[in-house]
Request: fold
Amino acid sequence: MMILLAFTFGVLLWPVLEYVLHRFLGHVFKVKTEFKKQHTRHHAETHYFAPNSLKVLAAIPVSTLFFGVFWFLSGSWQIALGFILGFVLMYSFYEWTHWSFHNLAPKTRLGLKLRKHHFAHHFHNAKMNHGVTSTLLDHVFGTYLEVPVVKVPKQFALAWLETGDYSSDFQLK
Reply:
């Protein structure tokens, strides 16, 4: 039971870290980090994503640190492993979701809603809409911006925009 709770906590902690990293390291603090460099490039070239090798190199020490902390706090490596598995699973889901928003046509209403949320961040106001897998923390911290129609600059046209009728949600300008 404790392992399942730890797993669930790992799943729930990732969106918090996603929001905090994106908002503060990506946009608020003016520190030069590899994260900031890759994030800035992603905003300039929306089809660019940091190489997976860099993501793995960053994930290993973070996961190792979290594993150690949870092992120390719980006294159980199994509980720590449960947490890390949930955390890494959700991080992997985030990475796939973010990539798919840029590269694949939406298949569900939720996918369309989250995609609009994300692209309002990219193309309307980068100080808003920091969540990718959820809008919850943007609502909680007052950084939620609803944009009825996301205006995408033509130089950033996404291939999936041309595969269906998304004119009520997205517009090339």
